[in-house]
Amino acid sequence: MVQFDSNSNSTTATHHSKPPDPLQLMLSESIHRFFTEYRSGSTDFSHFTSIFSRMLQSLPDAPLEFVWFYSAVTFHSTNKFSSPCSVSSSKDLFQLLVSCSTSCNAVKRISVLAPVIYELYPLAFGQKEFKREVESLLEGIVGYISICCGMEDDGNDDLSSRFGDLLRVWMVDRVGKEGEKRDDLKVFFPLVSEETREAISAGCGIRYLAGVVMCQAFLLRLCLKFGHGLPKLELEKDVHDCAVQMIAGFRKFHFLDIFLRMLLEPVLPVPSLVGHGNEVILRETLYDAAIKMDHTFLSPQGGNLLPDKQLKDLALTWSFVADNAIRSLRENGNQTKAISYINAFSESWLPAQLIKWVTSQTGMGDKARSLNVSTPVALLKWLLIIEDQGVKIFECDISKVYAKAVLCKSRVEYEIPVDKISGKYLGEDLACMVHERKEDKEADSDLEMIDSMDTVPLPAPCSMKSTAADGVRKRKEGSTVEGEIPVKCIKYHLCENLRREKLLPLAIGDGLSCGNSPSLDEYMRDMER
Question: Please, are residues 487 and 418 in contact by the beta-carbon 8 Å criterion?
Answer without folding.
Answer: yes
